From TrEMBL:
<keyword id="KW-0813">Transport</keyword>
<dbReference type="GO" id="GO:0046872">
    <property type="term" value="F:metal ion binding"/>
</dbReference>
<dbReference type="InterPro" id="IPR007419">
    <property type="entry name" value="BFD-like_2Fe2S-bd_dom"/>
</dbReference>
<dbReference type="GO" id="GO:0051537">
    <property type="term" value="F:2 iron, 2 sulfur cluster binding"/>
</dbReference>
<keyword id="KW-0479">Metal-binding</keyword>
<protein>
    <recommendedName>
        <fullName>Bacterioferritin-associated ferredoxin</fullName>
    </recommendedName>
</protein>
<keyword id="KW-0411">Iron-sulfur</keyword>
<dbReference type="InterPro" id="IPR041854">
    <property type="entry name" value="BFD-like_2Fe2S-bd_dom_sf"/>
</dbReference>
<keyword id="KW-0001">2Fe-2S</keyword>
<feature type="domain" description="BFD-like [2Fe-2S]-binding">
    <location>
        <begin position="2"/>
        <end position="51"/>
    </location>
</feature>
<keyword id="KW-0408">Iron</keyword>
<dbReference type="Pfam" id="PF04324">
    <property type="entry name" value="Fer2_BFD"/>
</dbReference>
<dbReference type="InterPro" id="IPR052371">
    <property type="entry name" value="BFD-associated_ferredoxin"/>
</dbReference>
<keyword id="KW-0249">Electron transport</keyword>
<comment type="similarity">
    <text>Belongs to the Bfd family.</text>
</comment>
Length: 68
């Protein structure tokens, strides 16, 4: 799904950027141009970035539950 129409950036690209270490809207703007034109995408992009940076507690719990 397109998040930033001005720059043609999708939620997938934002998640990939987060996986590659992008952790702030400033960095996201520099890297992909998100939020740099009209700014309407900023709230959605911030939420996707925050969600992507959140630890996956279920995966972590499953990993810890594995016998050694
Ligand atoms: S929709 Fe992202 S800057 Fe306009």
């Amino acid at each position: 799904m397109y998040v930033c129409l001005c720059q043609g950036v999708t939620d997938r690209e934002i998640r990939e950027a987060a996986d590659n270490g992008i952790s702030s809207m400033r960095q996201l703007g520099k890297e992909l141009g998100v939020g740099r034109q009209c700014g309407r995408c900023a709230c959605s992009a911030r939420e996707i970035l925050r969600e992507a940076r959140r630890p996956d507690y279920l995966a972590l719990a499953n990993m810890l539950a594995q016998p050694a």
